Amino acid sequence: MSNSEGRFAPYRNALTAISRRTGTSLPSLLVSFAILHELTAIVPIVGLGAGEHAVNAVALNRDGSIDDQSWVNTQLRSRVDEGEQWAGRVGRRYGVFGFKKGELVDQTQTSQLSGKLAGDVANAVLAYGAVKALLPIRIGLSLYLSPMFSRVVVEPIRLGGLRLLGRRPKSM
Question: How does pLDDT run across 76-130, given as a tens digit for each residue?
């Protein structure tokens, strides 16, 4: 590979080949992927209204006293810890999840956060963990559905916008 092609030439070539094979323009394909990727992140957040029980099942065993130290339990506990930290940051920044807006963090509040897993905080923590844990599935699903979404949703919107502006659409 010569330097004139650039560092990202292999990726550009692969994406162009996918674009040709699927019959969609590359920009439309990238926009479709981005939209689908974000939608697959929002669905678990919206769909996990009743997640408190699962969070408590994982969160209650943090002291390491359980016999089953499997990879799955370790990963779930890690996601719950990340989710608690995220919920605390968001809660203090926006004044949600039972936190006061702009509230400063000290050690006592941080230690109380584990006991605060109830209601909205539990749902936010579970949704955060689910979004992170489902990342490989979300990426695969977004890649798989991008060409169809591009043809059915993105391209008609793009063409309609061009018609409204009185411009002629370029062929692929």
Answer: 777 777 877 777 788 778 877 667 777 776 544 544 554 554 556 666 777 788 8
Q: Are 96 and 120 in contact (CB under 8 A)?
A: yes
Other C-beta atoms closer than 10 Å to the C-beta of 86 total 16
Backbone φ and ψ of 118, nearest 5°: -155, 155
Tokens of 41: 């992140």
Position of tokens 């099942």? 57
- Alpha helix segments (H runs only) across 1-154: 9-22, 26-47, 52-59, 71-94, 107-112, 119-133, 135-149
pLDDT class of 150 with cuts at 50, 70, 90:
very high
Burial 11-21 (b: 16+ CB within 10 A, else e): eeeeeeeebee
Within its chain, how far is the Cα of 19 from the centroid?
24
The total of other beta-carbon atoms located within 10 Å of residue 93's CB is 12
- Return the H-helix or E-strand segment holding 165: none
Give CA angle at 46 (96, 83), nearest 5°.
55
